[in-house]
Structures are given as C-alpha cells and as structure tokens.
UniProtKB/TrEMBL annotation:
Name of this protein: ATP-dependent 6-phosphofructokinase
Catalytic machinery residues: D128
PANTHER family in alphabetical order: ATP-DEPENDENT 6-PHOSPHOFRUCTOKINASE, PHOSPHOFRUCTOKINASE
Cofactors required: Mg(2+)
GO biological process terms, semicolon-separated: canonical glycolysis; fructose 1,6-bisphosphate metabolic process; fructose 6-phosphate metabolic process
Pathway: Carbohydrate degradation; glycolysis; D-glyceraldehyde 3-phosphate and glycerone phosphate from D-glucose: step 3/4
Subcellular location: Cytoplasm
Binding site for Mg(2+): D103
Purpose: Catalyzes the phosphorylation of D-fructose 6-phosphate to fructose 1,6-bisphosphate by ATP, the first committing step of glycolysis.
Residues of the Phosphofructokinase domain: 3-277
Pfam families linked: PFK
Annotated positions binding ATP: G11, R72, S73, G102, D103, G104, T105
Length: 322
C-alpha cells in the first residue's frame, strides 16, 4: 500500500483526534502517503479529501470532536453511492483505509470490502463502548468521566434538598456508560437494558435503602426498556409521594470535551497498530485492546450487539448502594 485514507464516521467521540493523529504520523513514519477524508463516507462519495502531513495533526491530541468532521451517510448505504466512493478513492490514489467509528461505520466498511478490493481496518470510536473485541472504545473513558463530574454536581444539590434524582445517560441500546459511571458516583440504583430491572425491583431498592440518606441518585441508561426517564420518575413519585424527585438528562455533553489520558493512549496505540497491520496485509477487522494487548476482530463480529454485562459490576451496585 502507498496511500492510506483516514475518516471518522457516526457519532463523534473524544479521542478521535488522537486516533487521527496516530494514523497520520504512523503512515508518515513509514513513508506512506496519507489522505484525510471529510465527513466520513460522505466525503468519500463527494471526493472531499486532502493530503495530510505532520502539521495537519499538530496540537489536536487534546481536542474533543474530530477535525475530519463526521456524518452518518445515507448514500453510502446504496450500491451507487459506494461505487462513486470507490471511483473517488481511485482518483485520489487511496489504496487502503482506516475508518474510525462504531457499528454503523463497520457495517459500511464490511459491505464496501465485500464489493471492492480496498483493504480496510477499523478503530473503535464511540462513547457507547458497545463493540465486541475491545475492552474499551475510544471516547468511553472520557464520557464516563464527564458523567461522573456532572452527577457529582447533581449530588451536591440533591443532598441539600433531600431529593431523588433520575439521571439519564447516553449509550443507545447499551447500558455500559450507565453501569460504570453509576458505580463511580455511588448511585443508589442503575437501570440498564442488559438487566431486567423492573419497576417493582426499583421500588424495593429505594424502600430498602437507608431511610436517613438525604440524596438518592438513579442512573437510567437511555436504552433501558423500563420506559422513558420521566415515566420512571413519575411511577416512583406515585409510589413514594414523599420523595422530592427530579429528572436530569445529560445529553450531548457526554460526547464532547478533552479526552482523558486513557483515551489518548488507547487511540494512539490503536492508530499505530492499524497502520502497521494494514502494511502487513490485514483487512476487514477492527483493531482493539483486550487485556492490554492489541486484538483483531472481524467487522461482522465487532458489531454484534453485546447483551451481557459484567454481573460482578451489577452486584457491586447492589452491595455498595445500601
Ligand atoms: O452512539 C453515540 C451516541 O451518542 C449514543 O449514545 C446516542 O444514542 C446517539 O449517539 C445520539 O446520536 P445523535 O448525536 O445523532 O443525536
């Protein structure tokens, strides 16, 4: 390979810039050319690409978002869109790709790879941590720290007013942001889609919880199937009319901000490994980190929905929140 194209696609995540920097600098280290592709697969289709150099990625390791911008491309779902993308890659002499994103990104990469002879490797870039084949995705650590910082503040006011707060966090259909940040903030309960926490169980936990506790925090994953966070708060309010309840939805602050050192190092390691592995002839896989070691997982397996969570972590919530 001579010229690697790099793009970010899907929802952005803190650390994507660190990943881009690692890919660009590693390619240059090995005397390859490197082409930045704007707005994910959209830029591939429209030919919005440019040659990158060391300076293109200067001073970005600490910045949230992605300098290459990102999009969820509808056109790339069509055969015609992918053909146009392939023509553009040829035009710009791009002969390999590193795509940084989540399940949508890898689904697109997998289809493209089946149709065209362009080696692709993926880096897991999503705050949701919902990809198989890596212990952590790039952006997850920063997102959970953002949640912890925000909920610590909510805890202050909850404590002053003796309130019960329901805090909704992101994660799409995964509860991994809720689970880890919930432990980090000492939540009284966590509602996640991977565990059937029905309303009855929640009532019981709140009832059994220490009566003298001034504040209570329930972390609700946005994908939890027990309903909308406002509905859950309403049901609890009906059951315990004495509770002063409030709802807080953290929203997109979870996607922004300067990446933690953990995310920067993860992105750097994976970025270097992706370029070296492309050079060694690998393709069709996500590069992740499992037990501290670089690991490769075929795209089709990486995007498998993870419906199991670490039961030990759930147990920790049960034990520690009383
Ligand atoms: O996949 C990342 C994520 O932030 C999810 O946690 C969330 O459900 C979704 O993206 C939000 O997407 P959008 O930014 O398009 O509203």
């Amino acid at each position: 390979i001579k010229n690697i194209g790099v793009l970010t696609s899907g929802g952005d995540s803190p650390g994507m810039n660190a990943a881009i920097r690692a890919v660009v600098r590693t390619a240059l280290y090995y005397n390859l050319e490197i082409t930045g592709i704007m707005r994910g697969y959209e830029g591939m289709i429209t030919g919005d690409m440019f040659k990158m150099d060391r300076k293109s990625v200067a001073n970005i390791i600490q910045r949230g978002g992605t300098i290459l911008k990102t999009a969820r491309s509808d056109d790339f779902r069509t055969k015609e869109g992918r053909e146009r993308a392939y023509e553009q890659l040829k035009k710009f002499n791009v002969d390999a790709l590193v795509v940084i994103g989540g399940d949508g990104t890898f689904t697109g990469a997998s289809v493209f790879l089946d149709e065209f002879d362009v080696p692709i490797l993926g880096l897991p870039g999503t705050i949701d941590n919902d990809l198989a084949g890596t212990d952590y995705t790039i952006g997850y650590d920063t997102a959970i720290n953002t949640v912890v910082n925000a909920v610590d503040k909510i805890r202050d006011t909850a404590e002053s007013h003796d309130r019960l707060f329901f805090v909704e966090v992101m994660g799409r259909d995964s509860g991994l942001i809720a689970l880890r940040s919930g432990i980090g903030v000492g939540a009284e309960a966590i509602l996640i889609p991977e565990s059937k926490t029905d309303a009855g169980h929640l009532f019981k936990r709140l009832e059994e919880g220490r009566k003298d506790k001034a504040s209570k925090i329930v972390i609700v994953a946005e994908g939890d199937d027990s309903g909308d966070v406002f509905e859950i708060a309403e049901r609890v309010k009906e059951k315990f009319p004495n509770y002063d309840t409030r709802v807080s939805i953290l929203g997109h602050i979870q996607r922004g901000g300067s990446p933690t050192c953990g995310d920067r190092v993860l992105a750097s390691r994976l970025g270097v490994a992706a370029v070296e592995s492309l050079m060694a002839g690998q393709k069709g896989e996500m590069v992740g980190l499992v037990n501290g070691q670089i690991a490769f997982t075929p795209f089709k397996h990486a995007i498998k929905h993870i419906s199991e969570v670490n039961q030990g972590l759930l147990k920790i919530v049960e034990i520690l929140s009383l």
